[in-house]
Amino acid sequence: MPVSPQVTSMYPQLASLAPGPLQALANAAEAYLVQALGRDLTAGSKTQTFSGKNQSILWLNCTPVASVDSITSNGNAMDMTSIHWDSEGRVSRMWKGFWNQVLGWDPGITNIVVTYTSAGLDQTTQDMLIGVVMTWMLDMQGKSSTVSSESIGDYSYTMNTAFLKGLPPYISTLIQPYRVYTAG
């Protein structure tokens, strides 16, 4: 389970759930976050494919990055001694050992494959992010998305769409620092 038992301490409304429903809700919340953030939350080996556009920096999604293990460009393994990377996910090619003299990446379509190890988000951060989405999902189960007002004369009704507009602002603000933004 991506969340620890501490999630019920952080979000007491989750404590009333049996282990099975708690696990299912945690899995759904994690899947939602992975989609919304454009990144995985857990540590481990990751592979990311890029289209080379002669850009100087490739940005890895699953930060913090613990190591860059291999890079292939157009099917050829690159010399890792000419690669500079940092924990923020920036990967660049160095020119003659100078990391501040970056070379562009070979142009092509999905021609660069980077295999790296992510340290993942720490457990407290995972509990916070997944737990807040779990409580939101749990709260949404009790909300009605049907009729919010109705008139009898010349019959009319209004749908209650207040809860169908995505994440509430407080959750969007909370997850924003972990979201991956990509330039097209």
The assigned structural class equals alpha+beta
Number of helices: 4
What percentage of amino acids are in beta strands? Answer: 25-35%
Can you tell me the residue ranges where pLDDT is under 50 for at least 5 consecutive residues? none
> What is the first-to-last residue Cα distance?
34 Å
The shape is: elongated
Main beta sheet strand tally, sense and closure: 4 strands, antiparallel
Q: What is the succession of H and E elements?
A: HHEEEEEEEEHEEH
| Counted beta strands | 10
Q: What is the average of the pLDDT values?
A: 86
Specify Rg, calculated over alpha carbons: 22 Å
Query: In which order are the strands of the major sheet placed?
Result: 1-8-3-4
Helical content band = 25-40%
Q: Which features characterize this protein?
A:
184 residues, 10 strands, 28% strand
Summarize the structure.
By secondary structure, the chain is an alpha+beta fold.
Description:
With 184 residues, this protein is of the alpha+beta class. The protein is built from 4 helices and 10 strands. A 4-stranded antiparallel sheet has the order 1-8-3-4, with no helix packed on it. Strands 2, 5, 6 and 7 form a 4-stranded antiparallel sheet that branches. Helix 2 (19-37) crosses helix 3 (123-141). The chain is elongated, with a radius of gyration of 22 Å. The model has no long low-confidence stretch (mean pLDDT 86).
